[in-house]
Design brief:
182 residues; mainly alpha; two-stranded antiparallel sheet; 4 strands; 8% strand
């Protein structure tokens, strides 16, 4: 990976983190996105793909994809819905950017790990081979330390605090309560 691509990826990651963090802070109570499971599964799939390409385990990756093709397709459908509802006309571009950033951050971690990367990650293929159901795959993906380029949260708008105002004629302070409904 060239240094300029790495810098661009790092800048995008930093920006995504700032934007996402700022939205989460400003918006109030946040919880994982309804598409959280789909992001976990996509992260695992990408991690296995990076491992396969870096460590010469393409056959193991292909076996994984064949075994869980229905679950992988289902979670891809959920991600498409998430990006469509979140980004509208820019959904495909944002989805593509996410997939690219995901592979880039995972590849970068592999580069930093050096020769230990394959030793650490190839065992994941043995672990996913032992999984039997789609639910097992989801649980496994959630439990693994899979690097993601950003956090995807659903946040609700906070209630506005009481607004205070001072009337000019009396100098009294009045409190007005406004309720924000979603």
């Amino acid at each position: 990976m060239s240094m300029s691509i790495w810098r661009a990826g790092a800048a995008a990651l930093a920006l995504a983190g700032l934007v996402t963090g700022g939205q989460a802070w400003a918006a109030g109570p946040c919880s994982p996105s309804p598409a959280h499971e789909a992001f976990d599964v996509q992260g695992l799939k990408s991690e296995l793909m990076v491992t396969a390409l870096s460590c010469g385990a393409q056959d193991k990756y292909n076996n994984f994809v064949m075994k869980f093709r229905t679950k992988l397709a289902s979670e891809e459908h959920v991600l498409n819905g998430y990006f469509s509802s979140t980004y509208g006309r820019n959904a495909q571009r944002q989805h593509d950017d996410y997939i690219t950033q995901l592979a880039n951050v995972q590849s970068e971690r592999g580069l930093k790990s050096g020769t230990a990367f394959c030793q650490q990650r190839l065992s994941m293929f043995d672990e996913v081979t032992e999984l039997e159901t789609a639910a097992d795959l989801s649980s496994y993906a959630q439990a693994k330390d899979i690097l993601q380029p950003a956090s995807y949260l659903t946040c609700t708008a906070p209630n506005r605090p009481a607004a205070t105002s001072r009337t000019r004629s009396t100098g009294r302070t009045t409190t007005t309560r406004r309720t924000v409904r979603s």
